[in-house]
Structures are given as structure tokens and as C-alpha cells.
What we know:
D-Maltodextrin-Binding Protein, domain 2; alpha/beta
Amino acid sequence: MLRRHxxxxxxxxxxxxxxxxxxxxxxxxxxxxxxxxxxxxVPFPPGGGTDILARLVAAKLSETKPWTVVAxxxxxxGGTIGIGEAVKGAPTGYDLVMGQKDNLVIGPWLYKNLPxxxxxDLTAVAHVAYTPVIIATSASxxxxxxxxxxxxxxxQPGTVTYGSPGNGTSIHLAGDLFEKAAGIKLSHIPYKxxxxxxxxxxxxxxxxxxxxxxxxxxQIKSGKLRPLAVTSAVRxxxxxxxxxxxxxGYPGFDVSTWYGVLAPAGTPAPVVKTLNAEINxxxxxxEVKAAIQAQGAEPQAMTSEQFAALLxxxxxxxxxxxxxxxxxxx
Length: 330
């Protein structure tokens, strides 16, 4: 009996030693992250708001830490192709994606039979920024104010055109919601990303541009694009002289978009914690704050849990908005 008891204690001691050894082996592996280059997938073409913020994060992480973070554009299907590629990546922290409202909480209700679910197949890592949508026009346009647009649209329904980064994006739906609020009919021209929509607006091929502010800020600053209104509840700190849609006669109007870094589901918690801490550290620096605000966005740090809660909440909320718009892509 005593011998059996001693053998049991010996076995337990060996097991405890093995667990302790495994823990010791795992700790250096977690602390060594990243041990190789990290890919940050950008699900939109170069030059748009998502691309600008992704490249800023990648560059600053590479500058301030001994990391190599490479932005990799994988555009298509309203950003859902890039998200899909991230979902298929190994859950090791070396395949990340800069997602945003359009492809994470709107795309799944817009595109039929997407093979992934954002709340099931992705891990929220770090929220980066939010931004209002801007309604703008070429500096040479006849439209000087939002009221001018409404008057023209009421006089000749469907003749005023606006370009957006794509059918069913939050930006397109902001335009759709504005039409409903103002009681007007505009003609929506969807593009494959923000940059081509911007170029056509500058050329006068569409009357209006509805865009994320980061995508349009450079041309607004240059004087080539005239901002008419922002869609957020309050004015943008980057464009304090530009009225909101709500201030322009449509109380309660509030549409904005957001951006954040995500990883494949199952990415180890220590890796997520490391990434969250480093991105939040960047967002707190005056240099990065200023760079984000210069693009028309507002930096906003969150814990990974807070970002996950935001994703889950808006994923549920936007189902009804997409259905009411009638937007659908087969």
C-alpha cells in the first residue's frame, strides 16, 4: 500500500514537472513574437482610407519596434476577399488584416453565401480609428452647399449622381440614408474602391463624392474637392468649419465608419495581447495621433474585448439597414 502511494506521488511530481517545463518552453515563444515578418492584409486598393491607415500602422510598428510589418493589398468584392484570405490564414499572429465596417459588418449581409462569419472566424485584435463619411464635390461644381444638392435633386429626381467605393458599402448606405432623410432621389454610381470614385468626382464625371474622410482629405486640403457636409453626429476635428448633415437640416443623422486590426480565430491570447498593447501604444503617441487626424480620422484605442463587443453589436444592427436599402450582391 505504501509502495503504491509513493509511486502515485512520484507520477504526480513527474506530471507537474512536465507541465512546468511546457510552460517554461511556451513563455519564451510568446515573448519572442514576432520572430519573422508580419503580413497586414489590406482588403482595398492602394490610396483609400483603409490602405492609408494600414500603412501608417505597419510603418510605425516597424519604426518603433524591431518588427517587420508589411502591408499587402488584396482588394475585391467590397473588401470581403481580403477578409476571406485572413480567415484562411494560420492563427499564429503572422497574418493580420485591417478590417473596417464595410467588409466586416455590412459585407456579410450584402454578399450571398460568404463562407465566413466575422464574429466566429476572426479574432478582434485592436481598434484603430473611426471617421465620418464626407459628402463632397469638385471645386468647380455648381453645388456650393448641401442645400443646393437637395434643391437640384428635388427639381429633377435622379439626375444628380454620386460616386461611392462600392455597392452596399457603409459609404453607399450613408448616401442611401441621406436620400431617405432628405426625401430626394440621387443616382448612385458604385466604383471598385475610393480612388477611382475620387478621380471621377474631381473630373466632374459624377456630381458628388460620398467617401471616407481619409480617402478624400488630400484633395480637400489641396482645394480641388469642396466638402459639403460630414455625416457624423458632431463635426470632424480635421474639418471644423464643415457642417454635419444633422446641422444642415436633418436632425439625428449620424453615420460613421471604423477601422481595426483582426487575426484568424484561434490566434493565441498572448499574441493578441502583445499586438493590442503595441497598437494602443502607437495610438497614444502625438505623432500617430496627428497623422491619423490629418487624414480626417480620429484615433480610438480599445481593448481587444471592447473591439470584439463593437464588432458583434454592429454586425447585428446593420442587417436591418442593409435589408431596408435593398442592396444585394449575388
